[in-house]
Model the fold of this input.
Amino acid sequence: PQLIEVNARMGGGQIHETNLRCWGVDLVEETFFSSLGIPSRPPVPPQPMCAVAYCYINAPASGKVVGLEKLEEVVKRPNVVWAKPL
Done:
């Protein structure tokens, strides 16, 4: 047997949004139920309801952000739910 890492928490980043959109499962709600001892058996579709993609873009060098014009252009694209600086 090997000890592996186990995190009893919801993942960060877009994990909540991804699960909600793809599977219709609200991880915050399920965590709340679990904390209260309420059985958690959310209905899950046999196939994902949609596809979701996300990425992080790292700057090639440190510096100052002087504008978000490019990000604003991305938000206006069809099917982009949100884009934000971290």
Notes: The chain has a mean pLDDT of 86. Residues 69 and 75 are 10 Å apart (CA to CA). The radius of gyration is 18 Å. DSSP finds three helices and no strands in the chain.
